[in-house]
Amino acid sequence: MKKTVALLLIIGVFTFAFKATELLPFTVPANFPKPVYDFSKNPLTGEKIQLGRALFYDPILSRDNTISCASCHGQYSGFTHIDHALSHGIDNKTGTRNAPALMNLAWQTSFMWDGAVHHLDMQALAPMSNPDEMGETIAHVVQKLQQSNIYPALFYKAFGDSLVTGEHTLKAISQFMLTLVSADAKYDSVMRRQAHFTTQEENGYRLFQQNCGSCHKEPLFTNNQFENNGMPIDTTLNDFGRMKVTNDSANALQFKVPTLRNIEFSYPYMHDGRFKRLSEVLKHYTSGIRPSKTLSKQLQKPIVLSSNEKVDLIAFLLTLSDKNFLYNLDYSYPKNILHY
């Protein structure tokens, strides 16, 4: 295929451009650790990424062709949703959790709020098969894709075979999600010594390091662990988090620590979307924590912040907003592909 497709992710020295027929190197942002995803088992190519991008935005993945991945993971909100607390699915059903933000997935070792999925290539199966989300089977998805007007050709370009398979479908979606790298916020510019925090942001950064940094570890702003952050359980949802997966009471009320990158845009907050504002989140951590046997060790000691310190802390959190990520056209709806 002679047509050149360019995908530019400008993150300091982090830039890659590619011809669609070439394997893509995954260049790690200068201030990031080594990714944990094994690219040797699913090498990035332009065609596979574009196929995955089309699949991500196509409601064909759902039983009634009404819900796409992007329905709950909108780009402008950091690939989550902001119009409701809990995810919405087919038949106007409501899920039990807030949709996690999608970014920097190559550095994650588990997925979902409870860590039920351990590999990115398998992640899409969870919402696809959930009766309250997409309510579909991978076998029927494959059948629909094979019968469509556009996908056999896209699979041929991506995999050299117009036969659609479940493995190739999931790997293509994974490839697109791997490109969702956010590392060009003001914070990153400061770390690269290309910019400076204001006095207020600097003070907020100091407060963050003292009170939040152990769980929201820089530079990904998550430790990829599961913690009980002291929120009282929602008696309607009765969601005990990680314990649902492990059946171990030691994991009761533990949820995966979310990234704080683009937190300005990814409200509502917490696994059940109960807080709409960052000020509510800080109020919880300073005066709303409920003691329990599984409460995070990091929260055993009370967090004390003055009103001005809370304002400074929020000022720092706003430096984690990455407009280049949120408005990158390479991540947007592929209208040149999904034209039916």
Shape: globular
User: Separation of termini?
Assistant: 23 Å
CATH architecture of the largest domain: Orthogonal Bundle
The top-level CATH class of the largest domain is Mainly Alpha
- List unreliable stretches of 5+ residues: 1-20
Sheet with the most strands: spatial strand order: 1-2
Secondary-structure-derived class? mainly alpha
Mean pLDDT: 92
Count of discrete structural domains: 2
| Rg, nearest Å | 20 Å
CATH topology of the largest domain: Cytochrome Bc1 Complex, Chain D, domain 2
Under CATH, the homologous superfamily of the largest domain reads Cytochrome c-like domain
Proportion of helical residues: 25-40%
Helical run tally: 13
* Quantity of strands, as a count: 4
Beta-strand residue fraction? under 5%
Name some characteristics of this structure.
13 helices; Cytochrome Bc1 Complex, Chain D, domain 2; 2% strand; globular; mainly alpha; disordered N terminus
Question: What do these coordinates show?
Answer:
With 340 residues, this protein is mainly α. The chain has two domains: 38-109 and 118-182 and 324-331, Cytochrome Bc1 Complex, Chain D, domain 2; 186-321, Cytochrome c-like domain (Cytochrome Bc1 Complex, Chain D, domain 2). The chain is 31% helix and 2% strand. It contains 13 helices and four strands. It has helices at residues 46-57, 69-72, 120-123, 125-129, 138-147, 151-159, 166-178, 186-191, 199-211, 243-246, 278-287, 307-317, 323-326, and strands at 23-24, 44-45, 226-227, 255-256. A two-stranded antiparallel ribbon has the order 1-2. The protein has a two-stranded antiparallel ribbon with strand order 3-4. The radius of gyration is 20 Å and the shape is globular. The two termini are 23 Å apart.
